[in-house]
């Protein structure tokens, strides 16, 4: 978990002094995804912020934030987007394309990026996790650790926003469909992941740290359904999916290999692997992690 002492970045106060708060150039990949736009909102307005993705975000960004188009398959576009970055937030989402993270790390080295903050996953610590997604995230982390660039790993449990996938069925007939509906997951609000990420980006005090992030309590789909029912003021039914039904639903959205990996993750959840909590959100933000009820109340219009 340590980098080589010969790395010149270790003698550069920009990279070692946690009190370094000068305006920085921060590049966030995943501009059109869930987390990076939230990170941009939490960053100090004095920073120069570049959001990157293939397509431009639909919503206008605040002043001081620009969008630069890039494609993980196009190393030249990555080098262009990363040049001069003091810190880089890395979001990739396709485990069948390991070349994406390889291209990103190569471009970051060539561009002289000062700090990589990687959106990874809590499952990398689970010795029983051997699925495609977890193996991919472990390899991504290793590549970054070997890059010589100071790094920070953000390792969240499942996003609370997965519940948004229930919204159409809830609106239509008040039913939530879930595999293993009584198994618990200490899921986390995307806002909390974003606030922690904004806190550490470019801050030497967080170099070479891995942060496992969870919500404040483990909850089952059944319990989340009860929270939503209470907030909406109407009964909801939580219906159990068989493994075959769940796999078929995953396969409608993802490749067969991804569907297998998601099913394996659900089996580990059933075995209790995703119920543990950490206090990392509170330690790094100074406030308790968001509860599912708080998150759901903030997104109730999507379910109503
Ligand atoms: N969901 C969870 O519960 C969970 C839990 C733990 C960890 N994670 C991790 O969180 C990460 C984010 O996952 P997500 O599915 O939620 O991602 P996402 O929010 O959908 O974001 C993916 C972003 O990557 C960009 N992108 C994809 N392919 C690209 C390419 N070829 N070139 C440039 N940009 C590209 C997309 O932009 P364009 O398509 O517009 O280019 C998009 O902005 C993943 O690494 C996942 O493993 C997720």
Automatic annotation (TrEMBL):
InterPro entries: Ergot_Alk_Oxidoreductase, NAD(P)-bd_dom, NAD(P)-bd_dom_sf
Tree of life domain: Bacteria
Domain NAD(P)-binding as annotated: residue spans: 30-202
Region (Disordered): 1-23
Compositional bias segments (type: Basic and acidic residues): 7-23
Cited Gene3D superfamilies: NAD(P)-binding Rossmann-like Domain, UDP-galactose 4-epimerase, domain 1
PANTHER family linked to this entry: PRESTALK A DIFFERENTIATION PROTEIN A, PTHR43162
Protein name as it appears in the record: NAD(P)H-binding protein
């Amino acid at each position: 978990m340590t980098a080589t002492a010969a790395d010149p970045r270790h003698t550069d106060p920009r990279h070692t002094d946690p009190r370094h708060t000068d305006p920085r150039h921060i590049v966030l990949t995943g501009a059109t995804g869930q987390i990076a736009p939230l990170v941009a909102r939490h960053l100090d307005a004095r920073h120069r912020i570049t959001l990157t993705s293939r397509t431009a975000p639909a919503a206008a960004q605040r002043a001081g934030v620009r969008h630069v188009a890039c494609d993980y398959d196009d190393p030249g576009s990555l080098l262009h987007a990363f040049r001069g970055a003091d810190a880089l937030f890395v979001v990739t989402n396709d485990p069948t394309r390991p070349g994406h993270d390889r291209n990103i790390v190569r471009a970051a080295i060539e561009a002289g990026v000062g700090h990589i903050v990687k959106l990874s996953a809590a499952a990398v610590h689970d010795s029983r996790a051997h699925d495609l997604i977890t193996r991919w995230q472990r390899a991504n982390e290793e590549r970054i650790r070997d890059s010589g660039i100071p790094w920070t790993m953000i390792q969240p449990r499942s996003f609370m926003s997965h519940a948004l996938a229930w919204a159409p069925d809830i609106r239509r007939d008040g039913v939530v469909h879930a595999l293993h509906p009584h198994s618990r997951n200490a899921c986390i609000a995307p806002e909390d992941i974003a606030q922690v990420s904004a806190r550490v980006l470019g801050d030497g005090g967080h170099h070479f740290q891995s942060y496992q992030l969870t919500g404040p309590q483990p909850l089952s789909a059944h319990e989340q359904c009860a929270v939503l029912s209470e907030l909406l003021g109407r009964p909801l039914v939580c219906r159990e999916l068989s493994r075959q039904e769940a796999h078929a639903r995953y396969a409608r959205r993802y490749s067969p290999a991804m569907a297998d990996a998601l099913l394996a993750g659900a089996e580990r959840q059933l075995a209790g692997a995703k119920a543990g909590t950490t206090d990392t959100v509170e330690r790094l933000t100074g406030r308790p992690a968001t509860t599912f009820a708080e998150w759901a109340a903030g997104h109730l219009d999507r379910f109503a």
